[in-house]
Each structure stands twice: as C-alpha cells, then as structure tokens.
Amino acid sequence: MEYLENRELSWLKFNSRVLEEAADERNPLLERLSFSAIYQSNLDEFFMVRVGSLTDAAVNSPKRPDSKTGMTPAQQLDAVFTAVRRLRPAVEETFTKNMQELKAVGYEHVNFGNATPEELSFLELYFKRELKPFITGIVINDALPFPFLKNKAIYAAVQLASKKGVAIGVIPITRDNSERIIPLGNGGKRFILEEEVVLKYAHLMFKGYKVLDRALIRITRSADIMVSGKGAEFRERMEELVAKRKKLAPMRLEVFDEFSRDATDYICRKLKLKNDRVFHSHIPLDLSYLFELQEMDLSPELHYVKRVPQKSAMLSDTRSVFAQVKSKDILLSYPFESMTTSFIRLLEESAVDPKVTSIKITLYRLARNSKVISALCTAAENGKDVLVMIELRARFDEANNIEWSKILQNSGVNVIYGPKDYKAHSKLLLITRRARGGGFEYVTQVGTGNYNEKTSALYTDLMLLTADRDIAADAEDVFTALQNGTFVEDTRKLLVSPLALRPQVLALMDEQIDIARSGGSGYIAAKINSLSDRTIIDKLVEASQVGVKVELVVRGICCLVPGVQGYTENITVRSIVGRFLEHSRIFIFGKDSKAQKMYIGSADYMSRNTIRRVEVAAPIEDERLKKRIRELFRTLMADNVKARVMNSDGSYSRVAMRRASDVPLNSQEALYDDAYKRLSDRQARQERLKTNLEKRTAKKPASGRKKSAPKTSAKKKSSK
Known about the structure:
Elements: H1 7-23, H2 29-60, H3 73-103, E1 108-109, H4 117-131, E2 138-140, E3 154-160, E4 167-172, E5 181-185, E6 190-193, H5 194-200, E7 211-221, H6 232-245, E8 250-256, H7 261-271, E9 278-281, H8 289-296, H9 321-327, E10 330-334, H10 340-352, E11 356-363, H11 371-381, E12 385-390, H12 398-410, E13 414-416, E14 423-424, E15 428-434, E16 440-447, E17 459-466, H13 469-484, E18 495-496, H14 502-517, E19 523-528, H15 534-545, E20 549-554, E21 571-576, E22 581-582, E23 586-589, E24 597-601, H16 607-610, E25 613-614, E26 616-619, H17 623-638, E27 643-646, E28 652-654, H18 667-719
Parallel strand pairs: 1-6, 8-9, 11-12, 12-13, 14-25, 17-22, 19-20, 20-21
Antiparallel strand pairs: 2-4, 3-4, 3-7, 5-6, 7-8, 10-17, 11-15, 15-16, 16-17, 18-26, 19-23, 21-27, 23-24, 24-26, 27-28
Helix pairs in contact: 1-2, 1-3, 2-3, 2-8, 10-11, 14-15, 17-18
C-alpha cells in the first residue's frame, strides 16, 4: 500500500531528524555535538535490538513478510544497511564541521599529524607508562582461538606479517575507569583520545612481528533477549540471560579508518559476519566522550539557556498532596514542572502518613539513586502494605531492576514481576488511606513516563493525580490481575491493554467516523512516540476516507503516510525533535470541547503496546485539565522551529514560516515559559491575597478604637 511505511526505515528517518539537530546552527555548539553522540547511541541500540531481531527472523522465518510493505526479513536488512550507509557522509560532515567550529572557541582534538614535537614525546612516554602496563596484545591465526570481542568496546587491530595466511593482533582498549580523553594543554581543551594513542604505538605490543596495517574496530552485538516466567526463579533466569546477552551474535563491525581487505575479511570470517555488515568510519567509533566535553565547559553560549523544572502551580506547599488531590484532579507536566516537589512528595508523605494503609505501583525504569525506591522502602518499614510490580524485562535496565527488586524485598515490600510473556509498561500508582469517619479514600496516578527523576527533567511527560473512585477501582483490578498473572477484560474508566485498550480506542474512533458520515465534523488527534499498529492504522485510513480530520504528532516511527489521495488526504503527521525527548501520549476524540473525550497514558499506537503489554490510559474529565491539554496540543501543532511535517512520499520537511510576520515558536521553550508564568501568576495571587488579608486584619482593630472613643468621651461629659 502506498500509504504504508516500513517500521525499520521509518525509525531510521527519525534518527536522521536527530542528526538534523546536530547540523542546526540555531542550536548551541556543544548541544549540536551532543546530538551527534545521541544519533550514534540510537543507532547502536537499533542494531542491537531491531537488526538483531530481523537477523533472527531471517533465519527462523525467512519468508514472513512485513505487515506494511511485504518485505521479507532479508529484504528489510538490505534496505536498512543501504539507508545507514547513505546517512554516513552527512554524519561525518556534520561532526567534522562542528569540531572545526569548536576549535575556534579553544578546543582541539589533536591527531598525530598536527601534534607538536613535545606532545609526541609526551604521548609516547604516556603510552609506555600509563597504558602499556594495563593492556595486552593478543596474536590470532588459524592455529589460535579468536578472542571474545565485547559489545561496543573499542579494539586496536593490526595485521601482522605471516608466512602462513593472515595473522591478526588485537589489543583491548576500552577498560573500566580508564581516562579516554588525554589532556595535552589549555586546561584539557587540547586533547587526544586514548584509543588513538594505543593504535599509534600498537606495534610496540607485538615485538618480533612486522605490522603491515592497523585500524580501530568495534563490534555491535545483538541484545534481542526475551524470557518468560514468574516468581523467584524468574529473577534468577533473568540474571542468567542478562549475562548471556553480552555474548550474543555480532550484528555489525565498525572500522576506523581504513583497514586491509584481507585482515577485514579474516575478522568477519571469525565473527561469522557477512561483508555487508562492515561499516567504515572516518570519525571516532564512540562519540560518548562529547558528553564529557559538554560537562567540562561552562561557557553559556555553548549550551542551551538553563531551564529549571518549576513547582506545579496546581499544588500548594501548605497542604499534603493527597488532601489537594481529594479536592480536585491535578495534572503535572514534565520537564516543565518538578517531579520532586509533586510526585515524589506524594510518595514521601504517604510513606509516613499513619492513615495510609497501602501503596501499589508499577515500575519500569528508575533513576540510579531513586527517591521512589527510598519512599517505598520507608513505607514498608513503617508497616504499610506495599506492592511493587517491577518489570525485569525492561530492555537495558534488566540488571538495575533485578537489584532494585532485591532492595525492595529486603525492606518488606511485596515484589511481583507481572504476567508471563507480557511486559508491564504501565505507569500506575494506587494509594489507599483511611478516611475520617470510617471507610477508605484513594489517590490514583496514571502517567505517560517512568518514575525516574533524571529523565523527568529530560523527557516531556504528563501525569494525572485523581481521587476518582471508579479509576481507583479499575487500578485495583489491574494490580489484582498483575498478581494473578491475568488480564483486565472490563473497566469502568481506564483503558487497559492487552484486552481493554485497543477495542475502546477503535470504538472511540468509530464514534468520530459516524459523526462524519452523518454530516458532522469528526476529529481524531494523538500525540504518541510511534504508530505501527496495522489495525489502528486501517481505522485511521477509514476515518480519513469519510472526512474525519486526523492530526497526529508522532516523534519516531510512523508507518502511516499522510496526504495520499483516496486514503489519507485528511491526515497530517508531524514530528518534533528538539532539546527534550517528546515522550507523552495523548489521545483526543471529538472537536466539540464539551463532548470531547481525552486520555493520557503509557501506550503508543504499536501492537507491542496495544495487545502485547500491560498499558494503562486514563480519561481527563476535569474541564480545566482538558483545556490545558488542548492548549498544549495546539502549541505542538503551531511549532515552526522544531517540527517537521511528513510528506505524501514519506519524507519529512521542516515546517515553513510562510509569512514575514510569522513569529518563531519552539513548542518546548513555549511550554517552559508557560510553566514559569503559571507559577509566577500563582505566587502573585497568593501575595495579593496575603496583602489584602493583612490590610483587613490591620484595619478592623483601628476602626473599633475610633468608634469606642467618642462613646467614652460622651459619657464622661454627661456625668460632669
């Protein structure tokens, strides 16, 4: 179908938009370089996960076609490798240009071609004293076993002269606690990388051999692991599998700069890699050191303007969060508002509140020094019933979550791991408290992002806090199902996958389709990270064909192509890639604000979310909050700085400012400005109320004295 896009190729287009941010001169220089590092990190994960999965499919299900484009796994791999190679010149050109610009502000990444004689002497001595004692050169030929090359580690590889075929020497460079950036002067701004020094003097590691050629290499291994099960033995199996993942099959070999064809072929043969998986690079194989440069330099002109998450204008400091939620629903918006002064505060208050009886929560990804874990442990130690569903299969966070689960259990928390074969990705909290006069009262939280203090300052997310009893009852059903390894089939208000989310979303879309068929103005909008669920895509196409206006803000994968005549001409798709990672999910149905239905939740419109995970979305029913989300969505749709629109051929273009009078609008900066203004307006109102109260308080006693004085005086005169 001409309105469908392959998932993997769509993701690569997203990463190219990240690369565009590295080239965008409106971004400060060090931020641009960070985007280059993010692009590379994203691509590493893509090869580890998606290419790993496709490689397995090419072996196990070679003829199974992609549901959107009909491509086999092998055809998708070919298309992926071609697309990655096409992007390579832009990757290198962007990085090189930014590094040249960095040189103009005092930084210089030195190479052995432009190092001074004094620096060359220093580096040779540095290698011999600081590096050589801690590294080992390994000689490999057909008579010797090939060493295990760690995932994403950098190695120096040399071709050695040999009378019997090819001989290779390998030096592991990436080591724990090693200093990758070697300062050469100017306060560390003039520097060289450790791997470059090792490569230069690699011949000293192989005495008695003639070195014919040398290069830096890096392996990317598959990380496509999945295990099912529950209970204590499940955690043990996960620990075993996480260790095993380090040894999964190589997916890619990167080579810096050029290397002998014979040596490269030899390494590929030993790694069982085809030559189409070899990628040459003329820039460093690991750009993560750029983050160190960013932290080292404090020059404001090289960084984004500092922004600080604000206190929520919806929350008062003088009352408990629980009490305030009882009075009204509260919507929190990150990173513009602070998680610490809102959600963490709710948890910490509940942990010591003697009337709180239980806390139940689902955890997916957590910060390294998690205040969430600390509060939950405190609650359990204070005798509260604490239930934590922690997802041990959260990719690349498995080891962290295994350790957190042990810490929680040691504090008396009841830890569970969710249903077999289904990840629990929901962001759900239920707090139960004894009410005054008997009975119980509840606060339920449903969010779009993880309970992670670090990413809450980097990702855009939404969180609903509500005392609604129907939502609390639905949340209780979710936790009961998670304990029993079952799924929620019916709900009062929440949307809960895998059984009670997609059918409801489709029904809500059908309502808009019926409105359009009856001559009305149907409207569907969504802000999501990805769109690939074919069933939902087909429903959106049906909606477009009958005249429903569909507005989609999709950050990453989008397998639906808009503007295709006869199919998707009533659909618009835009992607916003900027300073913060767009992560919130919003579903809107209906144009009329009074009848409009609105949800926020953890699910994207991907089949893995809608039918293969436990996800939760909550309705926004408070008119104040609905208005706020409408304003947020309109701001996203008005972005003409960081937004790109998807064209009818599947390409993306930056939103154009068509008139000279158009004012640039960066939605993320505008939403931060709004958070500052909301808090400022609230503080101003509070100050006015305080001033007025003080005036009234001061005025009353003075007025009383003036009235009493004449009466006393009159009495005295009459008595005389």
